[in-house]
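Section 5.1 Outputs to date
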Amino acid sequence: MAGRLASRTAVVTGGSTGIGQEIARRLAAEGADIAVADVNAADQTRELVTQTGRRFFSDNVDVSDEESINGFAARVRGELGSADILVNNAAVVLLADFDHVTYDDWRRTFAVNVDGPFLASRAFLPDLKKSGSGRIINITSSSYWTAPPPFVFAPSQARYLSSRNSSRP
């Protein structure tokens, strides 16, 4: 199927379920080949993408780990070629009251929600520049504006939102 994204490769972090899965499906419907980086298996996403006739690659990736995301970028290049689109969608949402959150929980939230988009963007930046029309799409939550009762997610989103405009390819 030819579409607006024919002969493009899109990378979606956190693409095994939910919004990330739907983003992958829609990009494939527009003609893009899809690579998914997630800590969970992306079998359902694979099925949705391959039904469109597009190629699919996924791997178990911790976006907060530089070696993990850099290795994934190299494997994507080997399987699908250079990336043209990066969708930073992976996130951790802690549904807990502040007094029940450990420091490790807090750090993990920031590592995935803030460090993850930075590391993924750096890993794929050479591809995006080479593309000539490369794009980075950062997904975030409206909880930054109106924090839900479990408070922990919002601060990481605030930090992420304040940093995202400083990283232009």
